[in-house]
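Input record (one chain):
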Amino acid sequence: MKITKDHLKKFIDLDTVFSAAITIFFLVIFITTLPMEEMTTYLLPRLLGTLGVVIGLAALIVKFYKISEKGEKGEVKYKKEKPKGINVLYTILFTLAYFFLMRPLGFILTTAIAIVAFSFLMKSRKRVVVIIVAVLLPIALHLLFVSLLKVSLPQGIVESILQF
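The corresponding structure, as predicted from the sequence alone:
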């Protein structure tokens, strides 16, 4: 595969910059855990750092190969897509709203709303699956963190009613 200037122009956009920044962020997390000596201290951050770097690099590689697909006549073909920069902006805004709403609404309700919002942002067509995941995943995560790991999560409307 021959890399041309046209490939690089199509490759470098807001999504690529965002993916690269996230990959670098997770790489920094991984590197900062290297001096740690106790496994209980470094295990989770190191796993998350490794997973973040792998996923970030995979996203960049997949994007590059999609751009450099060749057509039947040897020319480079590009899929016409809407600019995804607005999706990155919505993702940042949804994430900020998630953090600001966490304390007043609580972990379960805020996470359920975030799952639905991100699913619609990604144009998920399976609405029943989205609703089931939005209900079950926050409850499972809440039970995992509070019961098993003894981590306190923000209490909200749902937690006060259900008494988790």
